[in-house]
Design a protein that fits this description.
The protein is mostly helical. The protein has one domain: Recoverin, domain 1 (Orthogonal Bundle), CATH 1.10.238. It is about 65% helix and about 0% strand. The protein has a two-stranded antiparallel ribbon with strand order 1-2. α2 runs antiparallel to α4 and α4 crosses α7.
Length: about 160
């Protein structure tokens, strides 16, 4: 009898606890591509100050050594930039959702054109970091750049 009473009290306590626990807020489900972007962003941003990180999160890419190194690290880590050939246009399109998300007829020529316009092949290793920065800034000036800014903003804010 005493044991039954303790069991009932314990059960009532558990029910009260469950009623007082706020409902779980579902976390947004992120795609594997969004998680890869966030991982690369975090790994490459380890040495940035809070102000520098905020500036990059706001898509403000000044011509500064920390920005150049961050962008080269970011795109290389995602394997969407190769020092020998620049941005991997086809892989970028595929990684960012392909035809469903990007106008491929517009994206491929824009990315490849920026690679060619800004290329500095055959120069010292620092030139590859500079080339990546110049090609990225070039791509940002195209419709692909506008799409990239919107997409990264969504990823950073948990909407993608």
């Amino acid at each position: 009898m005493a044991m039954m009473r303790r069991s009932r009290i314990w059960l009532l306590g558990l029910l009260l606890l469950l009623e007082m626990t706020p409902p779980a807020i579902p976390l947004p489900i992120r795609s594997s591509q969004s998680l890869a972007l966030l991982r690369a962003r975090d790994q490459c941003g380890r040495e940035l100050t809070a102000a520098q990180r905020l500036q990059l999160d706001r898509m403000q890419y000044e011509d500064a050594p920390h920005v150049r190194h961050y962008l080269h690290c970011f795109w290389s880590r995602l394997q969407l930039w190769l020092d020998e050939s620049g941005f991997q246009a086809q892989r970028i399109v595929q990684s960012f959702g392909g035809e469903r998300r990007l106008n491929v007829e517009q994206a491929l020529p824009a990315i490849n054109g920026c690679n060619a316009k800004t290329s500095s092949r055959g120069l010292r290793s620092q030139a590859e970091v500079d080339w990546c920065f110049r090609a990225f800034i070039c791509v940002l000036s195209t419709p692909v750049g506008e799409w990239y800014k919107r997409h990264m903003s969504d990823v950073i804010n948990g909407n993608a």
